[in-house]
Amino acid sequence: MTAMEFTPLPQTAAWRHVDARDGFESVFLRDVASGHVIDGHTAAIEDGVIWAVHYTIEVDEQWVTQHCRAWSWSEHGEREVQLSRDAAGRWRVDGVLAPELDGCLDVDLESSACTNMLPVRRARLAPHRSMAAPAAYLRAPTLTIERLEQRYLRLSSDDDAFAFEYRSPRFGVECELRFAVDGLVIDYPGIATRVT
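RE: above sequence
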């Protein structure tokens, strides 16, 4: 049983959001000297509310989140939030310490299918191995932040994809996520399907 090996990330990717909301997400990915940068945008309608979220996430070479800046627009106005994680693992939200996020290595955006890539790329789990992946979770469109406990268990894989059992007790979610060999999610049941 071997750990996961990924192909290089594409420069762009996109998902159609389905079931939970109707919308579209596009991302632009680039390597930088310190790691990687993800710029993304989701526009959606959910429960009759139209919203958009734009985000920039900076991660280091091990795929640990260092900084995230997000903006949202909805009928309730515009919002902006910044998260940062220091070398000691302490998080700040708009410059204020957020000890409830201690131990989190990732940011996870409710508006994004892309952010599930972060723990998967970092851990490179062998088949039948699991990991806890608590995250700083940004709700859409409010951009409120909470700690989200999550767990990933790697299932079998084939030449074209990796499969994981994903659990989020907070939301009562338990499903199978499929990731392409580039590490980006292909199918997130009830949430999104990758289109390119």
